Amino acid sequence: MAEVNKKDLDRIRTYVEGDFFYYDSVGSTNTEAMRHTDAKDKSLFIAEKQTNGRGRKNRSWEASSGGIYMTILLKPEKISGDISALTLAAGLAAARAIPDAMIKWPNDIILGEKKVAGILTETRIFGESCVIAVGIGINANNKAFSEDLEDKATSIYLYSGNVQDKASLISKVYCEFLELYEDFKSGFSKIREEYSKKCITLNREIVVIRGGKERVMYASSINEKGELLVVSDGKTEVINSGEVSVRGLLGYAK
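RESULT FIELD:
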């Protein structure tokens, strides 16, 4: 389907535990969520189009026609030390919902060695409480990408040849995330095993890019905080997603 119609919105709404916001076009669903911090916990924001989508490290996200742009607003009663790993839980939710999908640490969703979805989590702290916007962008029915992305990005449609029911996919991702979020409240360790099985970054040599410098290292595992453990010259280092970028030896995901 090209767009979400009224019946689709009604279908999605039946799954939403908080408030539900739909936009024909918006700068960013994360931005809208942060403008509605008075909305209920687990509220859902979706848009047909985004004009100012963002990714990790404030990179732009190409929000072309056919994509899914959604944000889940969370209002936890207390601040967890593992908030940064919530992004990984969102990535796992998307990977659960998309057949054949895998994860490139920390939160890029991969189909056929190309990126099909991404996550951006933003937090605003108010004293002892906080509001979290979990943004999820999925290339669902996108038919083409700009020249600089066509070798790195794909859509579920391009990969499978099948037009996606966007309302069903949005609902699936939302429900999968809420299920993982309940487990996540006890810490990332509770979902680490499943995440690790889906993570194509592990058990291989990768390129770690930090401060413009590249190093070839072996990715061994994910720790209980969602950080990547890498080995070089017999020594283990802990890699935080906010510090570095990683890629395969032969390209973006390989």
